[in-house]
Amino acid sequence: MRIGILCSGGDAPGMNAAVRSIVRTAIVCGDEVFGIKHGYEGILNEEFYIAQDGTLVMGIRSVSGLARLGGTILHSSRSKRFQTEEGIIAGAKILRKYRFDALIAIGGNGTLSGARDLGKVWDGQIIGLPGTIDNDLLGTDVTIGFATAVDTAVDAVDKLRDTAGSHDLMFFVEVMGRHCGDIALATAIASGAEIACLPEVQETPEGIVAKLMRIKDTGKASVIAIVAEGYQNGAVEMQRILKDAGNPFDSRAVVLGHILRGGSPVASDRILASELGNFAVSALVQGETGKMAGRINGELTLTPFEECVSGHKKINDDQLRLLQVVAS
Ligand code: F6P
Prior knowledge:
Blueprint: E1 2-7, H1 15-29, E2 32-35, H2 39-44, H3 85-97, E3 102-107, H4 109-121, E4 125-130, H5 146-167, E5 170-175, H6 182-191, E6 195-197, H7 205-217, E7 223-228, H8 235-244, E8 251-255, H9 267-285, E9 291-296, E10 299-304, H10 305-308, H11 317-326
Helix pairs in contact: 1-9, 3-4, 5-6, 6-11
Bound molecules: 6-O-phosphono-beta-D-fructofuranose.
């Protein structure tokens, strides 16, 4: 079988570990893997990964040392052309031209929607892998990259705590996650933040200020608020809104932004990526198509693309309740 692999959308730590696992599993199964560069845009541009020895088929050594590397050696993009019917039809034609039998697409919501649409016009098999820091996909408990992003955010907040403590300050720390509050919630719990602003839980500015007053009354002089980028307009805006509403703390805003997408993946992301990469190739060998590989309750699963992109994962209510108890 000739398998193409690509990474699309925002890069996520662990994508490389997934590529490594896919290539090595395919070799064991007697299949050939071609790396497609820059995601779906790379299909349209016929842009392939060329190994150091000049070969197009990814060999065992072409993925050496990848488990610990952040980013993606295949490069990524958000292809506008592939969001159009003409683009997808053109992509299918190119995949036929190069005689691909299958495609593994690693990415988030947009990547899986692209895979679903491609499946309507291309008769090759397609399996998706959840590669996004946002953890917003249905069809898996955790996405590849989420754990590393949270670790990076917690590390940054730990550092900000020192300055917050030294200067009696409040920090509004913005974390990525698009419309999803998972990174913010996990970061708030792990960093011991006093306030978390999550898109899933809207609060009035007066309500948050009342909470801050109570915190101040208990003798606390410094505060950390984790703000999901999808809450209002993020940390800078929240700082302004709460100042106008009477925030009793002097404050600063910090946007962590793309820093969360970088860095060496933590062990759990490397393991998840390796498991799912291996599972994706086995699924192709068994004739599966049109599904995303995920891990739910410890079991490796396949969920149809349509289901994965039909909505967003719900916030974890148990963790929300936990945060309400421990953040005070
Ligand atoms: O989906 C990953 C993500 O990092 C989101 O958290 C964020 O909203 C978005 O991508 C940023 O995208 P870009 O890098 O294109 O600005």
